[in-house]
Specification:
Elements lengths: L22 H15 L57 E4 L3 E5 L4 E12 L2 E11 L4 E5 L1 E3 L2 E3 L3 E4 L2 E3 L3 E5 L5 E10 L2 E10 L5 E4 L2 E3 L9 E5 L1 E5 L3 E4 L2 E5 L2 E7 L2 E4 L7 E3 L2 E5 L3 E11 L5 E10 L4 E11 L3 E14 L8 E14 L7 E10 L3 H4 L3 E2 L8 E12 L5 E12 L4 E13 L14 H4 L2 E2 L2 E11 L13 E16 L3 E23 L4 E23 L2 E6 L9 E17 L6 E7 L5 E8 L14 E16 L10 E16 L10 E9 L4 E10 L1 E3 L5 E5 L9 E14 L1 H4 L8 H8 L12 E2 L27 E12 L6 E13 L5 E10 L4 E2 L3 E8 L2 E8 L6 E8 L8 E6 L8
Antiparallel strand pairs: 1-3, 2-3, 3-4, 4-5, 4-8, 5-10, 6-7, 8-9, 10-11, 11-12, 12-13, 12-14, 13-16, 14-15, 15-18, 16-17, 17-20, 18-19, 21-23, 22-23, 23-24, 24-25, 25-26, 26-27, 27-28, 28-30, 29-49, 30-31, 31-32, 32-34, 33-35, 34-35, 35-36, 36-37, 37-39, 38-39, 39-42, 40-41, 42-43, 43-44, ...
């Protein structure tokens, strides 16, 4: 049975006049009607098979008397079994139908005709079309288009459950649920399929002949499509196709496959990840990013990827994501690469092994209010981001530090409250390879206790506000190098220590305007290793002996501070009320502090340095705690006065909007701070250098400016050493500028002037953040070769007023960063650094995007690390190109591929890899 249009002859056979004079025609039709009365639209279900009883013929013969009659079957037959009420009807459900123009019912033909905007509802099936014919005698529904002077309209829409098909015509059997569909169009998760002839086997299986499928937006004129001879589709599960080839704008290409399988499930499914093919000048041909994806469960997955190069290099990567709603989520990544450059036996052959481990874990705040576990790990080979060949780490390889932290904290409720935390940290300098570890750091603290506070009411006065708390901190610290990391030698120089502190503080007000605070701090440090020193006259050197065993030292200090806040308002308004600047508000926060730190001479010892003739030439003082984890106790008495002054400047200006009667408030200086100190107990150089720092934001808060300087009041001698003479008394200025720095950052885009919020998304920012790099593109964008989609922008993001070929709004963005440092400690008078970095992107059309990241070093007079990039949105495809034109990482990468995740393996990738700098 096939689907036919209402205009076809098949649907009009019974409308033709019958010649009853032809007896043979009448006989044939009567016979057909008789047969159709007892026929069904599909085969009857087969009866259950039974095993026939084997009949054995008895050899004995019995003479039957003619008087004896055969027994009568007395078994009763239930007449209700033949009751017409119990018989199953032709339709299992109620058929609902309607149409705009008319609904015609033919009792003789047992058909219902629906015309114009026809609609039929039967169980979970729904058909909307221009013309629908219901043949309830055969359980068939015919649906087709409506033909008018302009062509065809009201194409049928067949819906069953979540599956939607839009054919030209359809024949559906309401009993068997089977259907024949002509010129069907359907979509599954962005996968658009067209087939001239489709057979719907049941609710979940479709067989298609000479089908075409694509992910293009325009179904009628797709920029690309795949043509196949046969196809099987199981909605929301899979699509299996036979011999297939690709067409681009209707032109066949040599890209062909003997068969293909496309999973369509909406849940996670395990499967093979196909690798990409490439070639490297130093390592030969390669397969990259091939492996397997394990969909373990709804909370956990795992991807195992690998690379192989014909010269013997290989790489392995493990990517894992996990999440439990309202509890925690995280991801784990491990990368390992064994790199061989050139061929073995040649002079330029080199080999290196690099790895990188990243782990991020965050706990939901609702999971446990009294405990929390978090992790942010980024450790590995110091040269990983410089040597890795599977990804281009533009924003990461310039990062000089890798840092990690894993922490657990627990709060014990009560009075007082107790907090306990365990933290393991890692800090790694990628230039030197030095690594600092704490495995772990334990910190315990007790909540503040106010022993003299009233049980009810507020705390007032110095006595009521006296409080103290107890804190303890223990560490196991390791200082090692990348070369021995993970080996037993890294624990040789590990040190352990513990420190207890009890801060006692109070605060109160005097004269209603001055805030006074006083504090005393008691600290005790424990150590398991001390040092003993003496001078060996024979060796003529100082000998240090490490001593194991518990030891401790106690220190304390006291201090007090007083501060206030002064507000000043300078009214600049004139009589006409036309002044642009209405007023300037100045806020000053002066503070004066005093601290005393005694000398702890009891912890210091001396040894004599003896000359060859046996006389003592020098006496050296030392402390046995000089190598302890928390430093050594001070042996100099300090009585210091500290002075700070904080400033804030704001202005009220006339509003730009004339209808706004209230002035606008702008910030002139966010902060301008001055600080210095005077040591009363010092015998010289009593004044500390004056430190000045400040910052502000201008250009509608788009530009941030921060600056700082150090001013020394003392002069230098001829040897450039600081002497106890004020610089002004030595013929100079009041202060001598010893150092200064300034940094500025500027972010601007076309939306800055329109008042619209920026919606730009940086796909590479997540990768950069996980690796500890910059996320502002000033060092370039990171690109993972496993997924080349640098931009998250999808089709349709452009606004409707933008023309396809001309985007007169031309979105753009610009990011600038400038920094300079000046040094004049010993009359060197040099600028140690002076550079400008910039990164920008511009959409020259809705489909074209250009970008660049670079900078200029004014000190060395040259451009810094530079990356140029452009991207072309090809509707269903995406093309991008990135180029590093100079530096020792000169390289380029070209990519073109399909956007859809279903077909993202259909891509072309070509790149020139940078020459690897393999460490020794």
């Amino acid at each position: 049975m096939a689907i036919q249009k209402p205009s076809h002859t098949f649907t009009k056979i019974h409308l033709k006049a019958l010649h009853t004079k032809s007896l043979y025609i009448l006989f044939i039709l009567s016979f057909t009607v008789f047969i159709n009365t007892f026929s069904f639209a599909q085969e009857l279900p087969k009866k259950n098979g039974t095993i026939p009883v084997e009949q054995l013929k008895d050899s004995a013969t019995i003479a039957i008397d003619t008087i004896i009659k055969p027994p009568i079957n007395s078994k009763e037959i239930d007449s209700t079994k033949k009751d017409s009420v119990k018989q199953k009807g032709l339709l299992e459900g109620t058929v609902k139908y309607k149409a705009s123009d008319y609904v015609s019912l033919s009792q003789k033909k047992k058909k219902i005709y629906l015309y114009n905007e026809a609609e039929v509802l039967y169980q979970d099936m729904e058909i909307r079309a221009g013309v629908i014919v219901i043949d309830y005698s055969k359980n068939l529904v015919y649906a087709g288009r409506l033909k008018d002077s302009t062509g065809y309209s009201q194409r049928p829409v067949f819906t069953q459950g979540e599956n939607v098909i839009e054919p030209d015509s359809i024949v559906f059997n309401t009993e068997t649920k089977k259907a024949l569909v002509f010129n069907s169009r359907t979509e599954q998760q962005g996968f658009k399929v067209y087939s001239p002839l489709t057979k719907k086997e049941n609710d979940s299986v479709y067989f298609m002949k000479n089908g075409r499928f694509t992910t293009a937006e325009d179904e009628d004129d797709p920029e690309y499509q795949f043509v196949t001879t046969k196809m099987k589709m199981v909605p929301n599960k899979k699509v299996v196709v036979g011999p297939t080839y690709m067409e681009i704008y209707g032109i066949p290409t040599p890209i062909a496959l003997p068969f293909a399988f496309f999973p369509m499930t909406q849940t996670q499914t395990s499967g093979i990840i196909f690798p990409t093919f490439g070639e490297d000048s130093n390592k030969g041909y390669n397969l990259q990013n091939g492996g397997y994806y394990f969909a373990i469960n709804d909370y956990l997955d795992l991807a195992v990827l690998g690379d192989y190069y014909t010269n013997g290099s290989y790489g392995l990567r493990i990517e894992n994501n996990y999440a439990v709603r309202y509890k925690f989520r995280g991801n784990l990544s491990f990368r390992y690469e064994n790199l061989l450059n050139q061929e073995r036996g040649f002079p330029d052959f080199s080999q290196s092994t690099i790895y990188n481990l990243r782990w991020s874990h965050s706990q939901d705040t609702k999971a446990s209010p009294n405990s929390r576990f978090s992790a942010s790990v980024n450790l590995g080979s110091s040269s990983y981001f410089q040597e890795s060949i599977n990804q281009s780490n533009q924003s990461n390889f310039l990062n000089n530090t890798l840092a990690s932290s894993v922490s657990y904290s627990k709060t014990f409720s009560g009075e007082p409250q107790v907090n306990l935390s365990l933290t393991a940290t890692h800090s790694q300098n990628t230039n030197t390879g030095d690594i600092n570890l704490t495995l772990p750091t334990m910190q315990a603290s007790m909540g503040r206790i106010y022993p003299f506070a009233p049980k009810t009411g507020t705390k007032q006065g110095a006595i009521d506000n006296i409080n103290f708390q107890v804190t303890s901190r223990a560490e196991y610290r390791i200082e090692t190098n990348d070369s021995i990391f993970g080996k037993a030698e890294m624990f040789d120089d590990a040190i352990t220590g513990m420190k207890h502190s009890i801060p006692l503080t109070t605060n109160f007000k005097v004269f209603d305007y001055f805030s006074v605070s006083a504090s005393a701090n008691l600290e005790e440090s424990w150590t398991l290793e001390t040092v003993k020193k003496f001078y060996d006259q024979t060796l003529e050197e100082v000998v240090s002996i490490d001593q194991s065993g518990f030891d401790r030292f106690l220190t304390y200090n006291v201090g007090a501070s007083i501060g206030t806040t002064i507000y000043g308002m300078y009214d600049l308004e004139n009589e006409e009320k036309t002044a642009k600047v209405k007023a300037i508000r100045h806020v000053m926060r002066p503070s004066l502090s005093y601290s005393i730190s005694p000398a702890f001479d009891q912890y210091y010892e001396t040894y004599d340095v003896i000359d060859a003739d046996g006389t003592t030439s020098d006496q050296v003082e030392y402390t046995r705690f000089e190598n302890s984890l928390y430093g050594s106790p001070g042996n100099n008495y300090s009585s210091s006065i500290g002075m700070t002054l904080g400033n804030n400047l704001e202005a009220k200006i006339r509003a730009k909007d004339s209808t706004n009667t209230e002035p606008e408030k702008i910030t002139i200086l966010n902060n301008l701070n001055f600080s210095t100190a005077y040591d009363i107990a010092a015998d010289s150089l009593q004044w500390s250098p004056l430190r000045v720092s400040g910052g502000t934001q201008i250009l509608n808060n788009k530009m941030s400016i921060n600056f700082g300087m150090t001013l020394n009041p003392y002069a230098l001698d001829s040897n450039n050493s600081v002497v106890n003479t004020f610089n002004i008394n030595n013929g100079g200025s009041l202060f001598r500028l010893t150092s200064a720095n300034v940094s500025m950052s500027y972010t601007l885009s076309n939306e800055s002037f329109s008042g619209e919020a920026s919606s730009e998304k940086e796909a590479s920012a997540k990768e950069s953040a996980r690796s500890g790099g910059r996320t502002d593109d000033l060092f370039g964008r990171s690109e993972d070769y496993a997924d080349k989609r640098l931009s998250d922008r999808e089709a349709g993001d452009e606004k409707e007023e933008n023309n396809e070929f001309y985007n007169y709004k031309m979105p753009w963005s610009l990011r600038l960063a400038y920094s300079a440092n000046y040094t004049n400690t010993k009359r060197d008078n040099t600028i140690s650094s002076n550079s400008l970095m910039f990164s920008g992107d511009v959409d020259i059309s809705p489909k074209w995007s250009l970008g660049a990241s670079s900078g200029y070093d004014f000190l060395n007079k040259g451009f810094t690390y530079t990356q140029l990039r452009f991207e072309r949105d090809l509707l269903s495809w995406r093309m991008n190109f990135s180029w590093i034109p100079f530096s020792d990482r000169t390289s380029w990468n070209f990519f073109i591929g399909i956007k859809s995740n279903l077909l993202k393996d259909l891509k072309y990738d070509k790149r020139k890899q940078a020459d690897q700098q393999v460490g020794n």
